[in-house]
Every structure is written in structure tokens, then in C-alpha cells.
Amino acid sequence: MSEKDNAQSLVDHLTELRRRLVVVGVVFVAVLVAAFFVVDPIYHYVTKNAISGVAIELNAFSFWDGVGVYMKIAMLVALGITLPFTLYQVWAFVSPGLKAQERKATARYIPYVFVFFLAGLAFGYYVVFPLAMTFTGSLNKQLGLVETYGMADYFKFLTNIVLPISLLFELPLVILFLTQLRILNPLRLKKMRRAAYFALVVVSVMITPADFFSAFLVLVPLVLLYELSVFLSKRVYAKQQAADAERAEKYK
């Protein structure tokens, strides 16, 4: 292929990528607008004291606190809903370079993106967040502090815990997708196990309050997710090896 053909191919790929990014942006904005209709019930649900077990009264310390919180909730809803669509666009962009069997296999993962995201959201909100609120609240009382929380700080604290956990729950799907693309394999994942465990320990400490129990409670499912990823990657890799061997035998 000549340099001119290579340049034209690169331009075509970049044009296709830009088109898909524009489509993702349009869908995200449309979902963001629709999300404003569900912000109010979500806001009242996540500020219930029954979840955290800590009685708090939220305050606005600036005129824009309410607007900022509403925007943050709407953007999180839009992010969760458009995440599968975004990954579909990524798959559609790279699928021409995949074999028919690989395209079919990777396409099956896309619906599970939303499921795993919701699982991470539920774990972060119903398990980790109450522990964090209880820990910080008890420490403040021990120090004799008067707890006066701003609504913006409350939601920043909430999202800093829940959102990273939700995204980390996508780890098995990401590893499976990369295995299908032959970028990762179970042998490489096993070699990376120590480094991966260390990274998960750092993440669990960063997104939880400073007590061992909370960090351990987050670390356990993250480690299980990594091991699940290795197991699933092993199955996919074995199928790939069998298919390659069959193909080599056929065209020998």
C-alpha cells in the first residue's frame, strides 16, 4: 500500500472516530436533559438519613450549590445510561479489525456494562458510604465538633466514594474485551497479579475512610473481581487458542 493510500486510510479512520464521538456527545446531552426530570426524587432519596445512619442537615453555602448538585446528579445519571452506548461505539469502531467470532463475542459484553455499573453503584452506596459516614461522624463527635454540612460537600463526598467503585466493577468486562482483542491474556494477568493487588489496595484505601475494616471491605470484592477477570480471560484465551489451532490445521 502506498503512502497516499495509508494517509487516506488514516484520514478515514479519524473521520469515523470523530463521527462516533459526536454521536456519543449528542446522546449524552439528550440523556442529560432527560435526567433533570428524575433529579428531584434521586436527591431526596440519597439524602435520607436511614442509609448512612447519621442524622445530618444539609446547608447551602453559596447561591450555586443547588444548581451544582442538580447538575452533578444529572450528569451521573447520564453517564450511567450512556456508558453502554459509548462502549458500543468503541466496539463498532474497532470491530472491522476483528474476526467474525471475536465481533460476536465482544458484542455480548456490552449489555452487562450497565449491570456491573449498577452493582458497583449499589455496593458503594449501601455498603461503603454508610461506613464512611459513620466513621467520620463518630470521629467528629469524639473531637467535640459541631457538624454543619454543605450540600455540595456532601455530594462531593458521596460521589468520590461511589463513582470510583462503580467504575472499578467494570474491570471484568474491560479485561474480557482486551482479551478478545488479544491485548491481554491470562498469563500476562497472572504475572501482573502482585502489581494489580497493590494497585487495588491503594485504591481501596483512597476511596474509604481511614480505618482498616472499611478498606478491607472494599478490597475483598475488588480482588474477587480481578480473579473473576483472570478466570474469564482464561476461558476466552483457551477458545482463541483452540480456534487458532483448528484454523492452522485446516490450512496446513
From TrEMBL:
Membrane spanning residue stretches: 21-39, 69-88, 109-129, 161-184, 196-226
Subcellular location: Cell membrane; Membrane
Keyword entries, A-Z: Cell membrane, Membrane, Protein transport, Translocation, Transmembrane, Transmembrane helix, Transport
Chief site of localization: membrane
Topology in membrane: Multi-pass membrane protein
Keyword Ribonucleoprotein: no
InterPro entries on file: Sec-indep_translocase_CS, TatC
Family recorded in the similarity comment: Belongs to the TatC family.
Subunit composition and interactions: Forms a complex with TatA.
Record's function text: Part of the twin-arginine translocation (Tat) system that transports large folded proteins containing a characteristic twin-arginine motif in their signal peptide across membranes.
Annotated protein name in UniProt: Sec-independent protein translocase protein TatC
